Amino acid sequence: MAHMGALHAVTEAGMTVLDWGCGCGRVLRHMVRRMPAGTRFIGVDIDPEAIA
Fold it and tell me: Is 48 in a helix, a strand, or coil?
């Protein structure tokens, strides 16, 4: 797993980021701003309350 500060080392155009257990997406919302345009984000969680 990459640390948020090291994202520049693991990014490439057109990549997909999977956040397994994303809850309300509090990590993904920061990643969206730091990743290159065209990055696809997928968040998965089993907790309906967290997703809502």
Answer: helix
Q: What are the DSSP calls for 1-28, one per residue?
A: ---GGGGGGT--TT-EEEEET-TTTTTH
The arithmetic mean of pLDDT across residues 3-12, rounded, is: 58
Query: In this predicted model, what pLDDT tens digit does every residue of 14-33 receive, in sequence order?
Result: 888 888 998 888 888 888 88
- Number of CB atoms found within 10 A of residue 24's CB: 14
Please give the single-letter amino acid code of residue 21: G
CA 26 to chain centre: 9
H-run or E-run covering 43: strand 40-44
Query: What does the chain come to in residues?
Result: 52
Cα–Cα distance measured from residue 5 to residue 20, given in angstroms and rounded to the nearest whole number = 19
